[in-house]
Amino acid sequence: MEDRGWGTLPRPGAGARVPAGAPAGAPPPYEGVWRFTAQAEEASVPKARHAVRDLLRRQQVPVSDEVVQGLLLIVSELATNAVRHAAVLSPLLAVEVAVGAEWVRVSVEDNHPYRPTALVADHAQTGGRGLLLVREVTREAGGVCDVEHTAGGGKIIWAALPLTTLGAS
């Protein structure tokens, strides 16, 4: 997999919770990167959401319920966009989950070159607010999101959220 960089995303390090008996400097056991692909079809949207939820549970990521709900909404919106707008040129989409000591990053990648933008809410429209919603959910959680181009001409849309929301203990 290509190195996409992390921008201003915090990297694992200071403040990481390491289990008793683990070697000094060892990352928490839940840290890692997981990636899966799916057909760019409507049925893949709930599958992506469930896969992310199940992964966070299986890895015992110490993430707040509020953040999990935000991540699942983000994955749903990004996967839906890939299915609706990129499937013609990109029959597959990829979902990646990267977990650090203090954050979790979800991304959806497709091979369509179009770089989407968040639209201004138009109350007459019944759709078109997905990226606006992703941006707001990310901002409210104290996270960051962006769109990056891939070496193959596609794009990756990602959002990184802290494991706990701002103001949570």
Strand order of the largest sheet: 1-2-3-5-4
Helix segment count?
A: 3
**Large-scale geometry:** globular
Distance between the termini: 36 Å
What's the SSE pattern?
EHHEEHEE
Q: Strand count, sense and closure of the main sheet?
A: 5 strands, antiparallel
- Helix content range: 25-40%
Beta fraction: 15-25%
Poorly predicted ranges: 1-19
Estimate the mean pLDDT confidence: 82
Rg over C-alpha atoms, rounded to the nearest angstrom: 16 Å
SSE-based structural type:
alpha+beta
Strand segment tally? 5
Concise structural overview:
With 169 residues, the chain is an alpha+beta fold.
Provide a descriptive summary of the structure in words:
The chain has 169 residues and is α+β, with helices and mostly antiparallel strands. 28% of the residues lie in helices and 22% in strands.
Secondary structure layout:
Blueprint: E1 32-39, H1 44-58, H2 65-86, E2 92-99, E3 103-110, H3 130-140, E4 144-149, E5 155-162
Antiparallel strand pairs: 1-2, 2-3, 3-5, 4-5
Labels describing this entry:
5 strands; alpha+beta; single chain; 169 residues; five-stranded antiparallel beta sheet
